[in-house]
Amino acid sequence: MHPLYNKVKNTLHKTLPSKPFLGIMCLLLLPFIIFLHLLPATIPSAAPPLHPGYYANSCPNAELIVRNVMKKAMIREPRSGASVMRFQFHDCFVNGCDGSMLLDDTPTMLGEKLSLSNIDSLRSYEVVDEIKEALETACPRTVSCADIIIMASRDAVALSGGPDWEVKLGRKDSLTASQEDADAIMPSPRANATTLIDLFAKFDLSVKDLVALSGSHSIGNGRCFSIVFRLYNQSGTGRPDPSIEPKFRQKLDKLCPLGGDGNVTGDLDFTPRIFDNQYFKDLVNGRGFLNSDETLYTYWKTREYVKRYSEDQDEFFRDFVEGMIKMGDLQSGRPGEIRKNCRVVNGGPPMDLVVDGYKDRRILSY
C-alpha cells in the first residue's frame, strides 16, 4: 500500500469522526487522489517550444559559430557535409530530435551508434565535437547538442550549394539512447517505396516530404554493402535489379564486385559534392544508387514528385526545406538537459534505482 494512503486514512479517522458518510466518500476517492498525486512523475514533461532566434540573447553568435566550424570541416574533408546533414534524419526519427544518436555506449546503455542503420555508415561525429567545443568556449552550457545537429545539417546543405533557411531552436538533449529503438525504426537501404511511405506517415510526414527529403542523397556516398543485393540477387532472384540502367549497372559491377569489399563507396548521384536536383534526374534515368532511391521512381505514388523535382530545382528546394523543418519539430517530450559533451550525459551512466518497489532507470546528475 502506498504510504500516502495510510497517512490520509489516519488523518480522516481523526478529523471526521462526526461525519462518517463524508469519511467513507473520501476513502473511496483516495485511490484516485493518489493517482493524481503520482501523475506528474509518470508522464513526460511537455516538449519545449521551438522558435527561430532562440539563442539571440543567451548566445547571439551561436549560428555563426556553427557555420564557421562547418565551413572549415567541409574544406578539410568535403564528404563531411553530407555526413553531418544525415544526422538530422537519424536523430529525429528515433525518439525525436534530442541528440541521442551522439551518445557513446556505456557499460549499462547500448546507444544508437552501433545500430544497424548507423554502424559503419554514419561518420563525422568529430565535427559535432568541434562545434560543441567552440560553443562551450563562447557560451558554456547554453546550446544543446540536439540544436547543433539541426543547425549543422542546414549549414551542410547551404554550403554545398543548396537552399538556406531559418531554423527553429530550443531543444534539450536526451538523458539516454537506445540501440533497440534505432533498429526498430530506421529503414534499410533495401526498403521499397511503400515501406518508406508507411514509415514517414508515422511521423506525420507526407509522400511529398518523403521524396523531397530523399533528395538529401544529392550529396554524399553510399557503401557497396548497401547495393550488392541489387546487383546480384534482387528479391532473391539471383539476378540484378532490372530497373538499373545497363551502363550504370556495369559501372556498379566494377565498383562492387560480388565478394568484394563492402565498405568501398560510390557516389549517390552524378554531382556528389553539389546539392542540386541531379539526384532526381538520375532516378528518372535508372541511375539511382540505392534501392530505396530508385524505388521512388518505379513506384507510382512517388514517381510524379521525382519527375517534378528533376525538372524544377526551385520546387525541390522549397519542398526540401519544408520537410526539414517539419522533421525538426519531432520531439519526444521527455526530460532533457544541455550536455557539456555531446558524447556523454552530464551526470554519468544510467543507474537502476528502486523506488517504492518499482525499478526506475534514471541518470544521476551532479
TrEMBL record:
<keyword id="KW-0964">Secreted</keyword>
<feature type="disulfide bond">
    <location>
        <begin position="59"/>
        <end position="139"/>
    </location>
</feature>
<dbReference type="GO" id="GO:0005576">
    <property type="term" value="C:extracellular region"/>
</dbReference>
<dbReference type="Pfam" id="PF00141">
    <property type="entry name" value="peroxidase"/>
</dbReference>
<keyword id="KW-0106">Calcium</keyword>
<feature type="domain" description="Plant heme peroxidase family profile">
    <location>
        <begin position="49"/>
        <end position="346"/>
    </location>
</feature>
<keyword id="KW-0812">Transmembrane</keyword>
<keyword id="KW-0408">Iron</keyword>
<feature type="active site" description="Proton acceptor">
    <location>
        <position position="90"/>
    </location>
</feature>
<dbReference type="GO" id="GO:0009809">
    <property type="term" value="P:lignin biosynthetic process"/>
</dbReference>
<dbReference type="GO" id="GO:0140825">
    <property type="term" value="F:lactoperoxidase activity"/>
</dbReference>
<keyword id="KW-0472">Membrane</keyword>
<feature type="binding site">
    <location>
        <position position="271"/>
    </location>
    <ligand>
        <name>Ca(2+) 2</name>
    </ligand>
</feature>
<dbReference type="GO" id="GO:0042744">
    <property type="term" value="P:hydrogen peroxide catabolic process"/>
</dbReference>
<keyword id="KW-0325">Glycoprotein</keyword>
<feature type="binding site" description="axial binding residue">
    <location>
        <position position="217"/>
    </location>
    <ligand>
        <name>heme b</name>
    </ligand>
</feature>
<keyword id="KW-0376">Hydrogen peroxide</keyword>
<keyword id="KW-1133">Transmembrane helix</keyword>
<feature type="binding site">
    <location>
        <position position="100"/>
    </location>
    <ligand>
        <name>Ca(2+) 1</name>
    </ligand>
</feature>
<comment type="function">
    <text>Removal of H(2)O(2), oxidation of toxic reductants, biosynthesis and degradation of lignin, suberization, auxin catabolism, response to environmental stresses such as wounding, pathogen attack and oxidative stress. These functions might be dependent on each isozyme/isoform in each plant tissue. Involved in the synthesis of highly polymerized lignins.</text>
</comment>
<feature type="binding site">
    <location>
        <position position="91"/>
    </location>
    <ligand>
        <name>Ca(2+) 1</name>
    </ligand>
</feature>
<dbReference type="InterPro" id="IPR002016">
    <property type="entry name" value="Haem_peroxidase"/>
</dbReference>
<keyword id="KW-0349">Heme</keyword>
<dbReference type="GO" id="GO:0046872">
    <property type="term" value="F:metal ion binding"/>
</dbReference>
<dbReference type="InterPro" id="IPR010255">
    <property type="entry name" value="Haem_peroxidase_sf"/>
</dbReference>
<dbReference type="GO" id="GO:0004601">
    <property type="term" value="F:peroxidase activity"/>
</dbReference>
<keyword id="KW-0575">Peroxidase</keyword>
<keyword id="KW-1015">Disulfide bond</keyword>
<feature type="binding site">
    <location>
        <position position="269"/>
    </location>
    <ligand>
        <name>Ca(2+) 2</name>
    </ligand>
</feature>
<feature type="binding site">
    <location>
        <position position="98"/>
    </location>
    <ligand>
        <name>Ca(2+) 1</name>
    </ligand>
</feature>
<feature type="binding site">
    <location>
        <position position="96"/>
    </location>
    <ligand>
        <name>Ca(2+) 1</name>
    </ligand>
</feature>
<feature type="disulfide bond">
    <location>
        <begin position="145"/>
        <end position="342"/>
    </location>
</feature>
<protein>
    <recommendedName>
        <fullName>Peroxidase</fullName>
        <ecNumber>1.11.1.7</ecNumber>
    </recommendedName>
</protein>
<dbReference type="GO" id="GO:0020037">
    <property type="term" value="F:heme binding"/>
</dbReference>
<feature type="binding site">
    <location>
        <position position="94"/>
    </location>
    <ligand>
        <name>Ca(2+) 1</name>
    </ligand>
</feature>
<feature type="disulfide bond">
    <location>
        <begin position="224"/>
        <end position="256"/>
    </location>
</feature>
<keyword id="KW-0560">Oxidoreductase</keyword>
<dbReference type="GO" id="GO:0009505">
    <property type="term" value="C:plant-type cell wall"/>
</dbReference>
<comment type="similarity">
    <text>Belongs to the peroxidase family. Classical plant (class III) peroxidase subfamily.</text>
</comment>
<dbReference type="InterPro" id="IPR000823">
    <property type="entry name" value="Peroxidase_pln"/>
</dbReference>
<feature type="binding site">
    <location>
        <position position="276"/>
    </location>
    <ligand>
        <name>Ca(2+) 2</name>
    </ligand>
</feature>
<feature type="disulfide bond">
    <location>
        <begin position="92"/>
        <end position="97"/>
    </location>
</feature>
